[in-house]
Amino acid sequence: MKNIIKSTIAILSVFIAFTSCNNTSKSDSKSGALAGNVAEKVYVAPGEHDEFYAFISGGFSGQLSVYGLPSGRLFKVIPVFSQDAEKAYGYNEETKPMLNTSHGFVPWDDSHHPDISQTNGEIDGRWIFINGNNTPRIAKIDLSTFETTEIIEIPNSAGNHSSSFVTENSEYVVAGTRFSVPIPQRDMPIKDYKGNFKGSLSFISIDPEHGHMDIKFQLIMPGFDYDLSHPGRGKSHGWFFFTTYNTEEASTLMEVNASQNDKDFIAAVNWKKIEEYVNNGGGTMMPAKYAHNVYDEATHSATSTMKKEVLTVNPLDVPGAVYFLPTPKSPHGCDVDPSGEYIVGNGKLSANLTVHSFTKMIDAIENKKFAGDAYGIPIINFEDVLAGVVEQPGLGPLHTEFDGKGNAYTTFFISSEVVKWKLGTWEVVDRQPCYYSVGHLMIPGGNSQKPFGKYVVAMNKITKDRYLPTGPEVTQSAQLYDISGDKMELLLDFPTIGEPHYAAGCPADLIKPRSKKLFKLEENKHPYAALNEADTKVVRDGKTVHIYMTTIRSHFSPDNIEGIKVGDKVYFHVTNLEQDYDVPHGISMIGANTSELLIMPGQTETFLWEPKEVGVWPFYCTDFCSALHQEMQGYVRVSPANSSTPLKWSLGEDIE
After folding, report:
1. Which DSSP letter does residue 627 get?
2. What sign has the CA pseudo-torsion 353, 15, 257, 131?
3. Per-residue pLDDT at 36
4. What DSSP string runs through 472-507?
5. Cys-Cys link to 356, which of 8, 283, 343, 405 (CB 3.0-4.6 A)?
6. What is the mean predicted confidence (pLDDT) over 109-118?
């Protein structure tokens, strides 16, 4: 135990020393990290477009933000797992069901790892998937609208971290648990963790036409922690690779007790073999309660369905489906190069980078070169799967991406740098500092057979002297490097929505042709849509009132309403009649316990207002839409609950 504590103290001492050294750097305009005329490389002239989209996770914000590269300009924040008052996501009646879970309405999550759909091993720009880490969920964003259109909850999971990564023909997106738990959940002593807690690796099928998700099967694994994952590609297509740590199966004082083994594992999963087993009737249905939420673009509304069972698979029932590759030590990132030959395990507590060979793995499996097993799953001999080692490249390796030119780039958290090394020779060829404590990095297309090896984006955890101070919490940060030449060149710092974890990127030209500019009114199937001003009306059903309202520059119809009573539940169903690109309208009602609505052209959205006091209460447009925006308003008269005031509405004339 003393040796373990000494080792932990030594690691912490190195971290403090490097952090202290890095944080003494000063970045002013005369002596900063940037030299030469690099500003030209990131300058995008007014009216011109960036070459790439970068989709950067928001971590604890529960969102996904969209930036242009090389400019670093923020284009949009896409709400996914968190409510967003700007867009009314999670506030309006249409999107509230998107945040439903088996635990009830959960309007937040910890979003980590976005990944773009692929076709034939190349990113195709159709959808992007991202995980919710806290309440296990996977979301799909449609890149024609940049809106979240589906969220599926993951049962039998906790800390949905090794997610969401997509196979090279978008057959599956995976959701691997970070924390092992009792499966099924039950009341039991935590000290009985070992041998009783289990991990789950969920394979979620993706409909090739619409992207609709469904849990195909869950692989129930030994009770380790499953950290990150990536799919095989090319020659290793049909396999998935997951890092594990805590193979000790400790449940307390994890920084010591989960760091005792010299090697943990990368789990290699032959999902093609398991898919065949399942398609032939294999697996066991297990009771499980989880929400599946789908947004329908035709009705502009989401529905939430509570599922009651999930198909589970015991790996021992599918011989040859799962193997363990020993990997030093507490590996975090698990990354596969564009050819599918090399699997990189980034051991956080290892001095070296370990690279496994897929070809050698298959040979070891065929020739049964095993070093025993873990819970019946074969462990391949370390030397028989090892492709090579990058010797002492830095301190605290985390994640690796590839440029498609035979080079790999790895982040080092403790030594705060990105290190470039060559596949096959394992030699370090370049390194550049980060400011500071870098986590993930991203090369557009770096998680595919065809990376666009022009830029790498590093996402940093600490920025204490990089920006003007903003109190105890300093802005989150990304840094952009040019990797088109032999040497990396730092081009740009830019702040990000916090906290950035991973990112996905692709050329803008993949997405722009599919970008939707408006919703066609004739395709609007919302049950409360008013598709022209003649359709506007107010309908009472007991104490529930439905207002069928339209909006167009520069008025609401109706703009005056009477006959609403204290205690009513009033639903404003507002349709934007505009059919011009980039002409949204907003609406907000005084006293409404929700956000404003922001309604795109041709779209219908709804908010609920429950008046509690008599009076005449205004509503107005919240999105500046014309020179007469200030005049875009209306009134609702609220009478006592027992009033006999009739229900009336008007536009342009006095109410009689």
Report:
1. T
2. negative
3. 55
4. SSPPEEEEEEE-SSSS-EEEEEEEESSPP--EEEEE
5. 343
6. 97
In sequence order, the β-bridge partners of residue 66 are 55, 76
- Count CB-CB contacts under 10 A for residue 546: 18
The pLDDT of residue 656:
66
Does pLDDT of 261 surpass 50? yes
Strand, helix or coil at 509?
helix
Please say if the pLDDT value at position 561 is more than 50.
yes
pLDDT in tens, 511-560: 999 999 999 999 999 999 999 999 999 999 999 999 999 999 999 999 99
When pLDDT is cut at 50, 70 and 90, the band that residue 346 belongs to is confident
Nearest to 202 by CA among 243, 165, 151, 245: 165
Instruction: Classify residue 644 as exposed, middle or buried by CB count within 10 Å of its CB (0-12, 13-18, 19+).
Output: exposed
- Model pLDDT for residues 454-474, shown as the tens digit of each residue: 999 999 999 999 999 999 999
For residue 487, give both structure tokens.
């040497």
Q: Measured between alpha carbons, how far is residue 328 from residues 250, 322, 356, 629 in Å?
A: 18, 19, 12, 62
Residue 501's contacts (CB-CB under 8 Å, 6 or more residues apart) are 57, 59, 111, 112, 113, 439, 440, 459
Which residue's structure tokens are 């093609």? Answer: 272
Q: How far is CA 136 from CA 21, 84, 175, 455, in A?
A: 38, 20, 8, 32
How far apart CA 306 and CA 290 sit, in angstroms, is 6
User: Which H or E run includes 647?
Assistant: none
CA distance 559 to 647: 14
DSSP 3-state assignment of 278?
A: helix
The CA dihedral of 480, 484, 487, 489, to the nearest 10 degrees, is -30
For the residues of 529-558, what is the DSSP string, one character each?
Answer: ---SGGG-EEEEETTEEEEEEEEETTEEES
Pairing label, strands 560-565, 633-639 = parallel
Short-list 7, 44, 121, 227, CA closest to 448: 121
Q: For residue 304, count other CB atoms closer than 10 A to its CB.
A: 17
Strands 199-206 and 115-119: unpaired
Q: In 516-528, which positions are buried (b, 16+ CB within 10 angstroms) versus exposed (e)?
A: bebbebeebebeb
Residues 551 and 623: their CA atoms lie apart, in Å, by: 12
The residue type found at 247 is T
In sign, the C-alpha dihedral spanning 352, 163, 230, 118 is negative
pLDDT digits (tens, 9 = 90+) for 5-60: 344 434 444 444 344 444 434 444 444 445 558 889 999 999 999 999 999 999 99
**Residues 6 or more apart whose Cβ sits within 8 Å of residue 433:** 22, 25, 33, 416, 417
Calpha distance 616→638 (Å, rounded): 6
How far is it, in rounded angstroms, from Cα 316 to Cα 57? 36
Measured distance between the N- and C-terminal CA atoms of the chain, rounded to whole angstroms: 86
Helix (H) or strand (E) segment spanning residue 362: helix 358-366
Q: How far is CA 80 from the centre of its chain?
A: 8
CA–CA distance, 120 with 123 (Å, rounded to integer):
8
- Nearest Cα residue to 34 out of 489, 494, 495: 489
Query: Which ranges of 185-298 does DSSP label H, i.e. alpha helix?
Result: 254-257, 271-279
Q: d(Cα 505, Cα 228) in Å, to the nearest integer?
A: 19
